[in-house]
């Protein structure tokens, strides 16, 4: 054991861990970019295929339901073949999903869109189960919150770019307001944009596969070996171990609520901003220098769907900025206090949109992303510290809970069909209130290691 500690403390060991962390962080960027394309895609398919809000939200459901189906199989795969081979399998699956999306765009078949998104998300699920604990493990355990939040910052950079490119490619001329008609020319153009986006994504994933294949020895060398005598667990053992832990269950509920709220707001955002009750008949956002420049006014009064789709980048961009700031704050502030503060503010912002509305509600809704920023990585690491189950089992359950992104957006879509986009944010507000309660409970519960040490002494 002394020899192992010396090896890890050596400068070469630190540089290897740093290179491995960089390789893993590239994956965070890639899946953030791909995931955030769902936001403009939901708005696009609503117009292309003439869907209701709830039907369009099935695109988000098809993507995020993969987490519910694939997370424990992913955890079992990682426990059996370890992180690097699992990541390579995930990237190959994502290439297959892109090919189905290309077929869907060329044949104009909505069910194929749903299948392609499910395949893409299945690969991303394996990446999530492998990469989240991997990023946390590559270095000093005391800085695991910092490392995972920093990786998530790059993930947020990908989510910032995704809506900009997606809105440019998918939403040119597409309108979804009541009485609007999508012409055949606009429909073909939007489908061509989807085809182009997923063609280049396919190339990006293939390049990542090659990059990670080349980096595989660096990552393997930096990953701490499992304790001696650790047996490989099958999927049922992992599930049993995870569900036996109260904190793994609480963490899973928290992830379910967080992802559901974040995705529901993001996928509805373009439709919400484009509505006449918010920015549809207002030029207010064009007066904000960076926001107005990014949206790129078409010269017509009000905010078009494409302009609104570009504004969604600021929802995800807020998460990117928040994670960068959060990485610094977590070095000084308790993770539980920061999580409680951010969830309470996010809840308040949602309630402002519900109760006040108007053009200012558009700016307030975009600001929610800033406070979403540190929620996922902090919930994840707080749960890993308190669960008591092995990391693969806990990570599998937490990533299964990302299925909240399939369930809650459809409910929010149904609420918006019935009562409007603003009122529908009452459900995300409830999610954030429950997340604040989770943070307060975590503050009262010491990590498993700390509790064990206290018992010994």
TrEMBL record:
Main localization (coarse): membrane
The entry's keywords: Cell membrane, Membrane, Transmembrane, Transmembrane helix
Localization annotation: Cell inner membrane
Major facilitator superfamily (MFS) profile domain residues: 20-446
Protein origin, superkingdom: Bacteria
Keyword field contains Metal-binding: no
A GO CC term assigned to this protein in UniProt: plasma membrane
Pfam family, one: MFS_1
Transmembrane regions: 16-38, 58-79, 86-109, 115-138, 150-171, 197-214, 250-273, 313-331, 338-357, 363-384, 396-415, 421-443
Membrane topology, from the record: Multi-pass membrane protein
GO function term, MF aspect, one: transmembrane transporter activity
InterPro entries, A to Z: MFS (IPR011701), MFS_dom (IPR020846), MFS_trans_sf (IPR036259), MFS_TsgA-like (IPR050375)
Cross-referenced PROSITE patterns: MFS
Protein name in UniProt: MFS transporter, FHS family, L-fucose permease
């Amino acid at each position: 054991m002394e020899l192992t500690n010396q090896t890890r403390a050596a400068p070469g060991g630190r540089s290897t861990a740093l290179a491995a962390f960089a390789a893993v962080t590239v994956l965070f960027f890639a899946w953030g970019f791909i995931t955030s394309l769902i936001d403009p895609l939901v708005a696009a398919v609503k117009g292309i295929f003439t869907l209701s809000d709830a039907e369009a939200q099935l695109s988000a459901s098809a993507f995020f339901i993969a987490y519910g189906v694939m997370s424990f199989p992913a955890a079992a795969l990682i426990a059996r073949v370890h992180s690097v081979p699992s990541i390579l399998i995930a990237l190959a699956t994502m290439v297959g999903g892109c090919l189905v999306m290309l077929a869907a765009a060329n044949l104009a078949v909505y069910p194929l869109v749903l299948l392609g998104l499910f395949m893409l998300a299945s690969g991303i699920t394996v990446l999530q189960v492998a990469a989240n604990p991997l990023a946390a493990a590559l270095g000093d355990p005391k800085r695991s919150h910092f490392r995972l939040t920093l990786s998530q910052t790059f993930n947020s950079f990908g989510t910032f770019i995704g809506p900009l490119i997606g809105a440019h490619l998918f939403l040119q001329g597409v309108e979804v307001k009541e009485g609007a008609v999508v012409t055949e020319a606009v429909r073909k153009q939007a489908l061509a944009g989807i085809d182009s986006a997923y063609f280049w994504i396919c190339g990006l994933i293939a390049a990542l596969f090659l990059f990670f294949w080349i980096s595989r020895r660096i990552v393997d060398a930096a990953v701490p070996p499992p304790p001696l005598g650790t047996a490989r667990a099958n999927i049922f053992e992992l599930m049993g171990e995870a569900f036996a832990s109260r904190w793994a269950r609480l963490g899973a509920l928290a992830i379910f609520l967080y992802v559901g709220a974040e995705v529901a707001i993001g996928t509805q955002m373009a439709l919400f901003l484009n509505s006449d009750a918010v920015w549809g008949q207002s030029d207010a956002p064009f007066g904000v220098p960076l926001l107005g420049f990014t949206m790129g006014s078409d010269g017509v009064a009000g905010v078009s769907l494409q302009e609104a789709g570009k504004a969604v980048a600021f929802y995800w961009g807020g998460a990117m900025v928040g994670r960068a700031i959060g990485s610094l704050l977590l070095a000084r502030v308790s993770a539980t206090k920061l999580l409680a503060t951010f969830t309470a503010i996010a809840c308040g912002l949602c309630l402002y949109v519900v109760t006040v509305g108007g053009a200012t509600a558009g700016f307030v809704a975009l600001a929610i992303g800033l406070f979403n920023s540190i929620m996922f990585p902090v919930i994840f690491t707080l749960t890993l510290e308190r669960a008591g189950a092995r990391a693969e089992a806990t990570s599998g359950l937490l990533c299964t809970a990302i299925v909240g992104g399939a369930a809650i957006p459809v409910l929010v879509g149904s609420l918006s069909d019935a009562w409007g986009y603003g009122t529908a944010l009452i459900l995300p507000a409830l999610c954030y209130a429950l997340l604040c309660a989770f943070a307060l409970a975590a503050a009262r519960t010491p990590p498993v290691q700390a509790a064990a040490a206290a018992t010994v002494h």
